[in-house]
Every structure is written in C-alpha cells, then in structure tokens.
Amino acid sequence: MTQFTPKTVLVTGASRGIGLLTAQTLAARGHHVFAGMRDISGRNCDAARALQKSAADAGHSLRIVELDVTSSHDCARVAAEIELERPLDVLVNNAGIMPVGVTEAFSIDQVRACFDVNMFGLAAMCQAALPGMRRRHEGLLINISSSAGRLALPYFGVYCASKWAMEAYSESLNYELAPFNIQSVLVEPSGHATDLVSTAPSPDKSATLVSYGQHAAGGDRMLGMFHDLFAEGLAGNDAQNVADRIVELVEMPGERPLRTQVGDEMGVTAINEATAPIQSDLIRQLSGVYAVKEVYEEA
After folding, report:
1. Which of 97, 153, 233, 277 has its Cα between 20 and 30 A from that of 191?
2. For residue 83, is it within any domain?
3. Res 288: pLDDT
4. What sign does the dihedral 39-85-22-187 (CA atoms) show?
5. How far apart are CA 49 and CA 98, in angstroms?
6. Longest Cα–Cα distance in the chain
C-alpha cells in the first residue's frame, strides 16, 4: 500500500452525493476532514448529525462546519478557523447546483444563483484558502467540474456555462500558483447517481417555456434519461468512483494531472488530449511575458 502523510482537507457541499462520500472516504483513510455544508441546524441537520456520528463511532477525524460558499464571510471564517487548528492542506471545491431546462427560460436571477455557487463560491473559497497555502509554499485545490465543463449540452446551457467558467479559472490558477508549489486541478465526472438530478432547478420564465411548445419538455426528457440510467445501478455510475479518484489525487505524490475524467468519457478525454498541446504551446509563447516567464522558470 502506498504510504502517505495524512492531510487536513476541507470538502464543500458535504451534505450529500460526491461531497458526502468524499468526506467519509478521506476520513476513513486517516485524513483530518472538515465537512462543509449549509444550514446544519435546519434542513441539513439530519445529514450533519449522521455524518458526525458515523465518523465518531469509527474513530475518524471529521468535523462538520457551517459553510455556505455563496457567502464570502462564511468562506473566510471557515478557512481561518481551520488554520487556527491546523494548516489547511487541501481544498475540495465540490458544492454545486445543476439547473436543467430551456436555457433562454432561466431568469437572470437563476443564472446568477447558479454562478454564485458553481463559480463565484469556488473563487471565494479559493481566495480564503490560498493565503495560508502560499505562506507555506504547499497546497492543493481540487475543483469538481463535470463533463459539462468541456461539452455544450442542450438544456444544460446554464450549468455548462458555469462549469466552463470554473474550468478556466481553475486552470489559470494552476499556472499562477506553480511558483508556490500549489496545484489547482480539475475532476470531470460524467453522469453519476447523485441527487443533483432530482434537485435540478427548472426555468421560471413560464411565458418563454410556452413559446417553445413541445420543445419545452426537453429538459425533463434529459433528466428522465438520467433517472432511467441510474436506476439500472451500473457500477460505472456509482458516485463512489468519483470520491475514490478525489482521494487518489489527495494522496498522490508529486505532480497531479491537471484534469481527471471519471465515468463515461463522452468524448471528454479526446477533447482534453487534443487541447493540451495547444494550451502548452500558448503558454510557451507567453513565456516571453515577464510575469508568466517568472511562473514557469520557478515552477
């Protein structure tokens, strides 16, 4: 078995799905886990209590922390509280929502709400965690994207847009943080059996939906396809697969891959392989610019 040093890890969106499984698996492996979730005295009370109890019963190092990533204050507070206790080694940005439906029919408020979690919440959490990591010249950001972060899908336009944005943000961070021995990497799961499908927000511009006629039901048909797929209980759609890959990245010595695809490839691996040399060539061309050259010479 590969030996590793236990890490202190903050997992956002740990009340359910991939976040919950990741927090549990990391703690079972001996890492010190802070499981972030919203409203732990309200709607997530049962989830928080069950997770804390199971960890305590097993003797695992896991603590629930109240965290809403759409609150910059929450992000800063949680990062500071962890740093007072022990250095934060790894941030797993998992919190996310997945709107599904006619893209035009999502109100601007709905689009903003999606970006508030999937993109701006991730940025706020990174900004809260990175100062300590930079001081120590060590750290790891694991940002949970999606196959939808590399593809454009009908009826997933708002979700895809938010994930495309966080992919660019994460990759740019990876280049800029190289002098500090910090990596910012992406995990790109395809469809996995979590409640993202059952809790997907629908568009609220009803007049626009009416104007699409029979096509307005496209989002529901897409969700139905995923429901049917997950009902088959195939091993490849088990969300534990994603949690296991995240744990592998946490424990991996040396440099991690920038992108890790999990599940049905949907062509994502081919896209990543095709674009990687283009991106690398662009970075080489930019190496004449002082700020970028400094990053790569020190990395």
Report:
1. 277
2. yes
3. 64
4. positive
5. 26
6. 59
CA–CA gap between residue 184 and residue 129 (Å, rounded) = 12
Residue 55: inside a domain: yes
Residues 169 and 152: beta-carbon distance below 8 Å: no
For residue 281, being part of any structural domain is answered with: no
Q: What angle do CA 79, 85, 88 make, to 5 degrees?
A: 45
Helix, strand, coil shares of the chain, percent, nearest 5, are: 55, 10, 30
Spans of the chain, pLDDT less than 70: 1-2, 191-195, 227-230, 233-237, 288-299
What's the whole-number average pLDDT of the chain? 91
How many CA atoms lie within 13 Å of 290's alpha carbon, on the beta-carbon side?
Answer: 0
Residue 93 lies in a domain: yes
Per the structure, the complete domain to which residue 117 belongs is given by 8-272
CATH number at residue 187: 3.40.50.720
Positive/negative CA dihedral, 164, 168, 173, 174: positive
Give pLDDT, residue 181.
Answer: 97
The total number of structural domains in the chain stands at 1
Report the SS3 class of residue 208. Answer: helix
C-alpha 2: how far from chain center = 25
Amino acid at 220: D
